[in-house]
Amino acid sequence: MTDGQATTSLAQHVRAFDAGGEAVAAAFLGDQPALALADGVVRLGEPDDAKRIAVHPGAAILVTVCDGATLATGGDDGRVVAVGADGVARQIADEKGRWIDALALRGESVAWSAGKAVMARDEAGVVRTWAAPSSVRGLAFQPKGYRLAATHYNGATLWFPKVEGAPQTLEWKGAHLDATFSPDGRFLVTSMQENALHGWRLVDSRNMRMTGYPGKTRSLAWSHDGNWLATSGAEASVVWPFKDKDGPMGKAPRECGVREARVTRVAFHPRALVLAIGYADGMVLLCRLADAAEILVRRPGGGPVGALCWDARGARLLFGLESGEAGLLDLPG
Amino acid sequence: MSEAREGDKIPVTVLTGYLGAGKTTLLNRILSEPHGKRYAVVVNEFGEIGIDNELVVGADEEVFEMNNGCICCTVRGDLIRIIEGLMRRKGKFDAIIVETTGLADPAPVAQTFFVDEDVQKVARLDAVVTVADARWLAHRLRDAPEAKNQIAFADVIVINKIDLVSPAELREVEARIRAINPYATLHRAQNCDVALADVLERRAFDLDRILDIEPDFLVAEDHDHDHDHGHAHEHHGLKHYHDEDMQSVSIRLDGDVDPAKFMPWINRVTQEQGPNILRCKGIVAMKNDPKRFVFQGVHMMLDGDSQRAWRADEKRESKVVFIGRNLEEEAIRAGFLACAA
Ligand SMILES: [Zn+2]
């Protein structure tokens, strides 16, 4: 397929709107679309009827995480704030102006980091702190148990905040950025400074290298069945197979949505093996994993897609661009 | 696309200087003078800045090795993160100043701009500015390799506290600096009272600005040329020293070079001697190419491009300059001259 020439198009089902600022994350809080904007605002609601919630007044949103009920944001004002479907912003933490570099959320538990300091707040509201060996760039809760992965220089660390004793270190040379666990909890995958992904099989800490990217991978998405990990950072979404016990080792990844523009955001449909892909030139595509068939959602133009998210049912897709342009796709039928 | 044009990128000035030289004085001046520019500042010691500025970011100077196993190939991991974060406030500031600690090596900061694609998209390295203490620099050059690195690496050197030394001592310190780095622009100052235009917006890393790489033997400001040619090795009031371990090597070749020889050679030299080469620059006449080829590098990292055409009244010649530690001068010279077309 070539740019803008998709045989099938859903573009007429997209409601385009002005988000009012650079979109850095998309989410659905219940049924309501939400866009986190760089200038500290969360825009919550339908395209023509949204509230602008100043979650970090006068500051910038650096990191976000959403679990479908809560959108948590970390700002360069040192604050962690949670917004629910009611549109009320609740402060979770104030690190006195230190930038919030990473966030993780699971159920009632929240974790955040500022420099080397990692904080985890459990369901009872107890906050525990751990000092990482170097600045932390990514945090993720393991799917089961109160256990947190933190990425840093030369590896990642698995920390049980409620357990005394030394956390478990997973070593791999280089600077690690974002972190994600496979939905079954067998693998931890990190994106790296040097245009590669790294993975560990947790049962035996076996290393997995996923290389060949022309740019950094800053968007990672698991398929609903947990068998695939879609990634940004190349002129296609590179999709790694994780079904087998060895994960992607020795297997070739799939490529979805091959174009001459860099993939910036990916989001797997919550019920089907269909991937939404946002590009550096503003295009948005849906791509079916089975046969790489593509459907156009948004034609190129306007700059990089910075935010992309499905709702829980997979009926609506929300996207936002760095330029402030945004769109909401309602799948027909 | 998000790729900004070179002119739209945020300029980044790196401010170095040994402990107590006066970096913070210069920084406070930059932040407090009414120049209409808004600066984001990356500092190591929060408390030092006496100015209210909402865009002051504390950094940890995290130097990361790259995965090629080479000791000189390093970047500032914290800076990559900070620049990414600052871009969330796009339009709220005009330039970034990175103040390093007194013992820092400027190379990882500079190399961050050669290595990281995301940083390159939004920001450009403007210049490395080093503040030196007129009284103590000569001593530090003897006992502190960090101080020597900062001088060798600099595009602009502010010789501060000149009111505390005699004219002879000042000439001595300038000669010591020139022995290490003949190419930086020197400014004499008391309380860092240089014109800010002399330290900001220098475009020292801009290939289009590498017009001429003649040594800059004159001090840019208040030349007190007391031409006392009493000493055989003085001219323009400058003594000539030879630093024991840090030198510059400058080689000129009349006429063209053969790109098939030059490209492998410059790559080999910077790969093999990269850890010892702090900076390199060159303007090269390539055979059958009407345009000037310009390059510059930091340790093993090179950036080069075809520039404007050679003018009719301009002599086609090729010139390269290396500043580094224990450089194999004769081998470099022979290697470059062998690239003649
Ligand atoms: Zn190196």
UniProtKB/TrEMBL annotation, chain A:
A Pfam family matched in the record: WD40
InterPro entries: WD40/YVTN_repeat-like_dom_sf, WD40_rpt
Transmembrane segments: none
Superkingdom to which the source organism belongs: Bacteria
UniProt signal peptide: none
Protein name, per record: WD-40 repeat-containing protein
Naturally occurring in which organism (per UniProt): Roseiarcus fermentans
UniProtKB/TrEMBL annotation, chain B:
Reactions performed catalytically: GTP + H2O = GDP + phosphate + H(+)
UniProt keywords, alphabetically: Chaperone, Hydrolase, Nucleotide-binding
Pfam families recorded: cobW, CobW_C
Record domain CobW C-terminal: where: 246-340
GO molecular function annotation: hydrolase activity; nucleotide binding
Similarity comment: Belongs to the SIMIBI class G3E GTPase family. ZNG1 subfamily.
Function: Zinc chaperone that directly transfers zinc cofactor to target proteins, thereby activating them. Zinc is transferred from the CXCC motif in the GTPase domain to the zinc binding site in target proteins in a process requiring GTP hydrolysis.
Protein name as catalogued: G3E family GTPase
Source taxonomy: Bacteria, Pseudomonadati, Pseudomonadota, Alphaproteobacteria, Hyphomicrobiales
